[in-house]
Amino acid sequence: MSLISTALKISEALTPLSTLTYLSSKITDVPLGKVTQFLIKEFIKTYKIDVNDYENPDISSYKTFNEFFIRKVRPDLRPIDEKAIAVSPVDGTVGQADKIIAGRLIQAKGIDYSLSALLGGKPDDSAPFEDGDFACIYLSPANYHRIHMPIDGKLVKTVHVPGKHFPVGHKNISYMPDLYTKNERLVCFFDTAIGSFALVMVGAALVGSINTVWDGTVVRRKNIEEKSFIDKDIRYKKGDEIGHFKYGSTVICLWGKDQGNLAPEFVPGNPILFGKAMIK
């Protein structure tokens, strides 16, 4: 085991990232007047954000930091590729995108992780995606943080898997095995025209919360929670907003064998925008 891997293992045991994440979520949701405005202005400067790309460019109107953080992008800047089978649900950077082989997904060179563990551990949940495809997209703090539906679909169920809140940046992805199956995540299962589709919202360090439009803010808990929506007929069109993160994190999309091919733009390290083709 490398020195970096050893250090990360020690950090996993000793660093109270969940506590820091909890405190971050509380502070950034509080109206702090001039302090809030200062934080927003510093954030814009640090990450070179063009406020004119968003529906509300008036930063003085945001009462909390998180109100600004989950600002809505102008729809005309994110046209939906109607010819694609499915589109990217977020703005971000492609972490990995490839085939799911023998129930394993690539995390980084030399590191993979379990499909079953990612989805919560039930064989019936992972079976539709065996030998299928996946796309993992990392959202940096600078990115637009709302999550959209990649394809027309009906919500079947969600599985909330409690976990840690390790950073999901390049260093941890490259050196911490099973990162995505250690962190908190919400797995959303949909029925679509191409079969089963899953979208996994992965929490991370300082992610104040994971939110969905159908169920609000995900409540952190100690045990896995499964919720069925099969009888509620909740449907979304491609491009509809379905949730958001507060601070940077990761979205992983999964679909079955022979349900469509990855778009050529989905290669590791490539920036991608919401609405661009993901499955062709």
Automatic annotation (TrEMBL):
NCBIfam families the UniProt entry points to: PS_decarb
Subunit details: Heterodimer of a large membrane-associated beta subunit and a small pyruvoyl-containing alpha subunit.
Lineage: Bacteria, Pseudomonadati, Pseudomonadota, Gammaproteobacteria, Aeromonadales
Membrane topology term: Peripheral membrane protein
TM stretches of this protein: 193-214
Active site (record annotation): D91 (charge relay system), H148 (charge relay system), S249 (charge relay system), S249 (schiff-base intermediate with substrate)
Keywords: Cell membrane, Decarboxylase, Lipid biosynthesis, Lipid metabolism, Lyase, Membrane, Phospholipid biosynthesis, Phospholipid metabolism, Pyruvate, Transmembrane, Transmembrane helix, Zymogen
The keyword Secreted appears for this protein: no
Protein family (similarity comment): Belongs to the phosphatidylserine decarboxylase family. PSD-B subfamily. Prokaryotic type I sub-subfamily.
Manner of cofactor binding, per the entry note: Binds 1 pyruvoyl group covalently per subunit.
Cofactor(s) essential for the protein: pyruvate
GO biological process, one term: phosphatidylethanolamine biosynthetic process
Enzyme nomenclature, EC number: 4.1.1.65
Source organism of the structure: Succinatimonas hippei (strain DSM 22608 / JCM 16073 / KCTC 15190 / YIT 12066)
Annotated GO CC locations: plasma membrane
Compartments where found: Cell membrane
Main location: membrane
Protein name, as recorded: Phosphatidylserine decarboxylase proenzyme
Reaction(s) catalysed (UniProt annotation): a 1,2-diacyl-sn-glycero-3-phospho-L-serine + H(+) = a 1,2-diacyl-sn-glycero-3-phosphoethanolamine + CO2
Site feature location: Cleavage (non-hydrolytic): G248, S249
